[in-house]
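Write out the bound-state structure for pyridoxal-5'-phosphate.
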Amino acid sequence: MKYGRSILAGVEGYVPGEQPRSSGVIKLNTNENPYPPSPHVLDALWSLASENVRKYPDPVSRLLRQACADRYGYPGPEWLIAGNGMDELLALAVRTFVDPGDTVLSPYPTYTLYDTLSALHGARFVGVDLDETFQLTPAFCETKAKLCFLPRPNAPTGVAAPRAEVERFCRAFDGVVVIDEAYVEFADDTCMDFPRLLDNVIVMRTFSKSFSLAGMRLGIAVAQPAIIEEFMKCKDSYNINMATQAAGLAAMQDYDYMLGNVAKIRATRARLTRALTDYGFDVPRSQTNFVLAQWNREPSAKAIFEALKEQSIFVRYFAARRLEDCLRITVGTESEVDALLDALREIIYGVERAPAAE
Ligand SMILES: Cc1ncc(COP(=O)(O)O)c(C=O)c1O
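---
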């Protein structure tokens, strides 16, 4: 395109998972929560008076940030910034800390948006391979960069690096570390306390997964106030619309409701993992609301993905190194998982029941 910036010629653009609009689809491809958000969220949305929507929203989402500060044990809203989805906050991190030509570091495989955002900014992106169990390696820890995106737990592997190892890495890293905790509510522990102690760490969360609010687009970053001040300079003036601020606040105030949904998803995850293992998949221990099912036999993972799609069951397939033999499957409701397992059994074994595990 003759009018585009020259840099764009080398950028593919991020490709989100499919969002089929037809009904009757079992959607296990974009890690949405299968359960609805707190009923208080819907009450808050209904009560947005038309008189209010005439005006601009609070540009700095103060009530929401205060509620998150209280929940996460921080002194006040100056430790937090809200984003239009965590994706906006990830982009802000690049805009705030990276000059064109600087290096951005991530493990590989991981969330591909990090690479895209860096490329769009003219930065050099370095993805350092995780080991065969999807853990961090010495080579990763020794790589120098201006900014590091470190998702914990990681996507699409579902695996979390040990907290102590992440802390050691952050202390040694000469740059800013974004710990992406998009899935942390499904995990055993968190690094949310790190920003209190470490001035180079930003912890990010999203309302898209555990809080069932992917459609509202809301994320939060926690860091020392000096970092938040820089972020504030770079964000859009009214980045969080009024409805999203109200929904996020209501969801945060009904935290136990979210924890109830998370408990259900963790139980279903355990059952799904056991069943997939019985079918012959290798499934690394997931600390997220999805599992990475590894399968290096016939029919190929890609063929299974396509056969499931024909039955209106959507999972995620990545045609990328180290992921060609994998399906990433979101943990759905119990009945969605039953339907998936029935279909998989039929596709793989052509029989109504899988052979008993050895
Ligand atoms: C690792 C990771 N980080 C961030 C995000 C983005 O979250 P949001 O919906 O808040 O933009 C996702 C979404 O799938 C994700 O997988």
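---
The domain at 39-255 is CATH 3.40.640.10 (Aspartate Aminotransferase; domain 2).
The chain has a mean pLDDT of 95.
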